[in-house]
Design goal:
The protein has 162 residues and is an alpha+beta fold. The protein has five helices and four strands. The protein folds into two domains: 45 residues; 81 residues, Alpha-Beta Plaits, CATH 3.30.70.3460.
């Protein structure tokens, strides 16, 4: 990875330009051609250094006012199956396994978003009942204190917006 790749990644850590040709705008900001930007992104993707470029949906602004971290005490031999099933729900933005603690036995975690808490709670109760998960908790989000993307390289002069 050379300096152009690092500067390109630094620019992508912020907001992609809201222009008709965002890659051309990035190229102009980097002092390279649009073809260079696209070629570099394709090479980074092919090498596995770049997984994807994606939009971050500000769910509160799109009608999804309810958010909750939902935790389940899933049996170890059911973890993968339950995780995959849970991940199929459009309410789930991310889902993962964590090791249990003495005071906190939950092992399957899912961040859920819905138009209201009733939607999330109904889904969780139904999921737990259908799959025999006896212990779970719905941890409702009250206020978003911080939400940013990972920063791997500094130097992006594009301001991040909430």
């Amino acid at each position: 990875m050379d300096d152009v790749d690092r500067r390109l990644i630094a620019k992508l850590q912020g907001n992609i330009p809201l222009t008709v040709d965002p890659y051309r705008t990035l190229a102009e900001r980097l002092g390279v051609s649009e073809e260079t930007v696209i070629g570099r992104l394709q090479a980074l993707r092919a090498s596995g250094k770049l997984k994807r470029i994606g939009a971050v949906l500000r769910h509160q602004n799109s009608g999804y006012a309810a958010n909750a971290m939902v935790v389940f005490k899933a049996p170890p031999d059911e973890m993968e199956r339950l995780g995959k099933l849970l991940s199929e729900s459009p309410l789930v933005s991310h889902c993962y396994e964590r090791a249990p603690c003495t005071e906190w036995p939950y092992t399957l975690y899912a961040m859920m978003h819905g138009r209201n808490m009733e939607t999330i709670e109904e889904f969780v109760r139904s999921f737990a009942l259908e799959h025999g998960v006896e212990r779970f908790a719905v941890l409702e989000s009250r206020e978003e204190l911080k939400k940013t993307s990972m920063l791997f390289f500094g130097g992006s002069d594009d301001k991040k917006t909430p």
